[in-house]
Here is the input.
Amino acid sequence: MPQTQANGFITANALPLVQLDSADIVNEGNLILSDVSFSVSRGELVYIVGRVGSGKSSILKTLNAELPVTSGNVRVGDFNLKKIRNRQIPALRRNLGMVFQDFQLLMDSSVEENLMFVLSATSWKDKAKMKQRCDEVLDMVGLATKAHKMPHQLSGGEQQRVAIARALLNSPSIILADEPTGNLDAETADGIMALMMKIHHQWRPAIIIVTHNRTIIDRYPGRILLCSEGRLREVTDELSYRQSSNINGDMPM
Here is the structure.
């Protein structure tokens, strides 16, 4: 494994944290995107946009080894995903923070129990240290007083803050967010993005966000990768950016 600082981020060298070279993105035997090449370095903010079914989420699933790499090369941190073994996948995912549109919380468990479950599943043993870490990440996301609440007692925005806290537990070098504001109203969505940008500025993880919300991209600029017609390309100028948007102001879904 790469050398890390106390916060767990990869610091062994200046290589990109994510590197894809001529990779095919395949889901259940179907070719979704072909010849995909891009890299993401520490501290970068990258948006992946495109219409429904264009392959956005499949890219994230490839990066966390949920989907196999069948062609080309994909490296995440020090892991070659074309050669990764099943026993190595938990170590890979400990260095990835995942945030989902539908939160994916355990609804019959308290906020703290949701977080403790993840720590147990990622080889934490010391209960006192686990409790301390839960308190730390809940404080980071503004939910220090909500540890014993059940998910159904929280608003949608608060549930997504719990999901972000969960993603931060192991101080990941990379955060992958799949439509993190998709189920939220505009004001709550902006609060979630402001929180993610605070994390981004303080700890400098690479953040890759799948979204169709152009307002968010306008307010929090980053690199834009567009999935279209079975290919992925980087949108590098304002004209191309506007042309890739539809007339109602959203990025194409």
About this structure: Residues 186-203 form the longest helix (18 residues). The chain is about 30% helix and 25% strand. The CA atoms of residues 4 and 86 lie 23 Å apart.
